[in-house]
């Protein structure tokens, strides 16, 4: 007997169906629901490749994969994948298979410490067999665990049919180095090979490149006999980067060098070489040091005070490899050093400003949406600011825009005095700046604000007006951008622009306004005056004359532009952003803080005072860069510091808080949270550090996984200096350095990940296909019902 049940289904009323079919329909519906729910987390990450880590880049670009599955470390990977944006990046963190290499054009293997399995080698061979591929295999000197990397690299080079080999030795240099013989400097001097775009390799490179603890590249013939690249070549061989002729051979661990003997020197050695195969159009690159990972990778732009062209070297290498396998030039010779985005719709200053009412002030003309910095092959720097709506050029400004006034305040790593004021914005930049770019419409001949030409200001107040050669300003209506192109030689610390801190503000240009900035008034706007101002701030002369500030969120902008103090007559503070951002979240617990509910929080960092907005709760976030010396201001024991200290907490009504416990200071590469516990003490005299014991730890390039607990600092391949020990060279994968006299500190410092995320547009294609399939199944079930 068939049991039936009345079931009301869309389009069908009082349809009698068998209970088995009813149950099937319910199960199908449940399966569809569960499937969609289970896929929700994936909907925001479908652009990532699960089998091989993350994918970063643009659609239809060549794919470059970075291997991290064979003991390599990821130092500089984030920087490389963000700066080199004309390719798509993929991180390999699992065994290499054909699926992992699917779609990859270039494979980077930087100092592998673990052997490749036979299956992985076969996958790489199959991948190369497709033709039009490039692989860069980098190794290390024979110091420490270097022989393992050398053997792994050479085994792979041999397996894929290359003549290139990694010499089983080390190369040192007592003259051309970064303050130590093993921090060797090299230079680009590529062979000129017609048709292989070798001119790209040396574009815009004027400084040396760091090869930290390197070895040399040699080659072998069909009989396995090694040859010296200095005076012997073969068809398809391309010599790229060399040591200086002051270099010499070192030998630390077996085996002995294949070609060179210890002590040989007084001549250059090949650091980077390549082999091109005409039949397959494949390119194999070998190098004695790695562009990423390593102790200090080839990407490094400065080391021990020596300026380097590491970023441009890696950029050129990737662009060259991509161009060779593509058969035409790929990417631009202009290297993007960094880019920042700013949310749309926050063009209201501190959150209350309203555009003037004249028709030229259309929606979006003061909405800053992005900022980019480029390095060009002719040693110029390009600063590009994007707005939501440039609105053409209604008043025919010579620089092709009329309404906007861009201010860019730049702090560099140079040890020179800074300026903290701004030119007409009525805000301060508390960390200071070494130079400022004021991009104006460009009338007259004198620099703003005296005249109306765009200007370059130095911290000492001197200025240079734009011209037609060394300092050019223009707008592009199609992309809604304002651009400044300026000779690097005019900018202090120009070779290290990737390390600068940029405070960018957009305001309304007014040729008749104070300092050429449009004024603000309380209440409604008028035809030519911005409305929505704070009457008390205007009366006190501290109202910000800024419509938009470069910041990750609108709330960050509002907090900065509302940080003025009308009673004390203190202007608001805006902070800059670094391309290598370190977000330090200071969760501060202060005993007795509740006694000072109106306190303002300050932090004194690296010689610069950051005022962290007006707050009634001692928890805040502040953007810093690991290129600023974050932790170099520490009061000595018993030292009277007169208001200066690493961390200080201000209360204008009750005096200053005293930090009575020193802090274990660790400079980290990455993002972190530091929890600190202080005792709040109203100030009755000059600040004095009263703790009887202190410890200072300065670390360089520490992984974000660094753990700081009690008396041990564990790092990954870290150069560490403490009050009791110094490590000159470290090649072990992990070292542990004991910090003495730390366990007695009352201050607790806990480092944890401080998550920063980038929004990714969901790709619903896969989910949509699955959903369609499930709907078809349901339709079939319904048809079965109807037939019955």
Topology:
Layout: E1 4-9, E2 12-18, H1 19-43, E3 55-56, E4 63-67, H2 77-83, E5 88-92, E6 104-110, H3 118-129, E7 134-138, H4 146-159, E8 164-166, E9 170-173, E10 183-188, E11 209-212, E12 217-220, E13 226-227, E14 237-243, E15 247-250, E16 270-277, E17 282-287, E18 302-303, E19 306-307, H5 310-326, E20 335-341, E21 368-375, E22 380-387, E23 404-411, E24 427-428, E25 435-439, E26 455-458, E27 463-465, E28 471-476, E29 481-487, E30 501-508, E31 520-522, E32 530-533, H6 535-540, E33 548-549, H7 554-561, E34 572-573, E35 577-578, E36 581-591, E37 600-605, E38 608-614, E39 619-625, E40 649-651, E41 655-657, E42 672-679, E43 698-700, E44 707-709, E45 712-716, E46 719-721, E47 734-738, E48 751-752, H8 765-787
Parallel strand pairs: 4-5, 4-6, 6-7, 7-17, 24-34, 31-32, 36-42
Antiparallel strand pairs: 1-2, 3-5, 8-12, 9-15, 10-11, 10-14, 12-13, 14-16, 16-17, 18-19, 20-21, 21-22, 22-29, 23-25, 23-30, 25-26, 26-27, 28-29, 30-33, 30-35, 36-39, 37-38, 37-40, 40-41, 42-48, 43-46, 44-45, 45-47
Short description:
With 788 residues, the protein is of the alpha+beta class. Strand 4 (63-67), helix 2 (77-83) and strand 5 (88-92) form a beta-alpha-beta unit.
């Amino acid at each position: 007997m068939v049991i039936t049940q009345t079931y009301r289904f869309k389009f069908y009323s009082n349809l009698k169906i068998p209970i088995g079919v009813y149950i099937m329909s319910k199960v199908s519906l449940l399966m569809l629901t569960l499937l969609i729910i289970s896929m929700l987390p994936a909907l925001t990450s479908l652009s990532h490749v699960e089998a091989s880590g993350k994918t970063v880049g643009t659609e239809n670009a060549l794919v470059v994969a970075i291997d991290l599955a064979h003991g390599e470390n990821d130092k500089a990977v984030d920087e490389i994948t963000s700066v080199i944006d004309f390719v798509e990046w993929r991180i390999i963190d699992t065994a290499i298979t054909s699926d992992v290499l699917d779609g990859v054009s270039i494979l980077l293997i930087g100092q592998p410490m673990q052997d490749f399995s036979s299956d992985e080698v076969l996958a790489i061979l199959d991948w190369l067999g497709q033709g039009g591929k490039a692989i860069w295999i980098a190794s290390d000197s024979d110091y420490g665990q270097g022989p393992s990397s050398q053997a792994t690299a050479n085994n792979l080079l041999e397996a894929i049919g290359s003549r290139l080999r990694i010499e089983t030795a080390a190369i040192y240099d007592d003259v051309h180095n970064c303050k130590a013989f093993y921090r060797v400097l090299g230079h680009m001097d590529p062979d000129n090979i017609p048709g292989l775009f070798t001119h790209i390799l040396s574009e815009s490179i004027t400084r040396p490149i760091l090869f930290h603890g390197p070895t040399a590249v040699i080659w072998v013939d069909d009989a396995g006999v090694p040859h010296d690249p200095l005076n012997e070549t073969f068809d398809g061989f391309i010599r790229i980067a060399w040591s200086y002729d002051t270099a010499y051979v070192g030998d630390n661990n077996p085996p002995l060098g294949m070609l060179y003997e210890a002590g040989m020197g007084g001549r250059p050695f090949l650091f980077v070489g390549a082999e091109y195969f005409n039949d397959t159009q494949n390119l194999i690159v070998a190098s004695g040091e790695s562009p990423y990972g390593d102790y200090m990778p080839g990407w490094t732009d400065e080391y021990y005070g020596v300026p380097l062209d590491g970023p441009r070297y890696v950029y050129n290498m990737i662009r060259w490899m991509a161009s060779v396998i593509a058969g035409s030039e790929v990417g631009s010779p202009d290297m993007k050093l960094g880019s920042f985005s700013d949310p749309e719709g926050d063009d209201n200053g501190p959150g209350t400003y309203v555009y003037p009412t004249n028709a030229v002030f259309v929606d979006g003309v003061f909405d800053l949406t992005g900022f980019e910095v480029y390095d060009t092959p002719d040693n110029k720097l390009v600063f590009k600011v994007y707005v939501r709506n440039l609105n053409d050029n209604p008043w025919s400004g010579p620089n092709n825009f009329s309404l906007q006034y861009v201010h860019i305040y730049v702090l560099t790593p140079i040890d020179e005095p800074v300026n903290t004021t701004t030119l007409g914005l009525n805000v301060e930049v508390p960390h200071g700046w070494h130079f400022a770019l004021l991009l104006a419409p460009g009338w007259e001949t004198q620099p703003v604000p005296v005249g109306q030409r765009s200007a370059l200001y130095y911290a000492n107040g001197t200025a240079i007006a734009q011209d037609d050669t060394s300092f050019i300003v223009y707008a592009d209506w199609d992309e809604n951008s304002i651009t400044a192109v300026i000779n690097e030689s005019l900018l202090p610390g120009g070779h290290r622009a990737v390390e600068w801190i940029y405070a960018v503000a957009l305001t309304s240009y007014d040729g008749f306004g104070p300092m050429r900035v449009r004024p603000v008034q309380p209440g409604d706007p008028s035809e030519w005056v911005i409305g929505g101002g704070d009457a008390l701030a205007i009366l006190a002369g501290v109202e910000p004359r800024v419509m938009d500030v470069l910041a990750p969120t609108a709330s960050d902008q509002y907090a900065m532009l509302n940080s003025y103090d009308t009673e004390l007559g203190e202007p608001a503070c805006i902070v800059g952003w670094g391309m290598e951002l370190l977000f330090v979240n200071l969760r501060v617990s202060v005993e007795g803080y509740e006694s000072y509910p109106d306190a303002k929080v300050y932090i004194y960092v690296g010689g610069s005072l950051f005022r962290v907005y007006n707050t009634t709760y001692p928890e805040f976030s502040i953007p810093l860069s690991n290129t600023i010396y974050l932790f170099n201001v520490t009061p000595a024991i018993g030292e009277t510091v007169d208001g200066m200290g690493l961390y200080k907490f201000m209360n204008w009504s009750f005096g200053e808080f005293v930090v009575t416990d020193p802090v274990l200071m660790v400079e980290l590469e990455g993002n972190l949270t530091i929890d600190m516990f202080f005792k709040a003490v109203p100030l009755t005299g000059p600040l004095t550090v009263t703790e009887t014991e202190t410890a200072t730890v300065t670390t360089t390039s520490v992984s974000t996984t660094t753990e700081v607990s009690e008396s041990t600092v564990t790092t990954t391949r870290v150069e560490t200096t403490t009050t009791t020990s110094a490590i000159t060279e470290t090649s072990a994968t992990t070292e542990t350095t004991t910090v003495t006299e730390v366990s007695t500190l009352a201050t607790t410092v806990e480092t944890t990940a401080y998550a920063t995320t980038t929004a990714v547009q969901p790709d619903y294609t896969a989910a949509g296909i699955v959903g369609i399939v499930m709907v078809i199944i349901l339709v079939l079930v319904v048809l079965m019902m109807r037939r019955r």
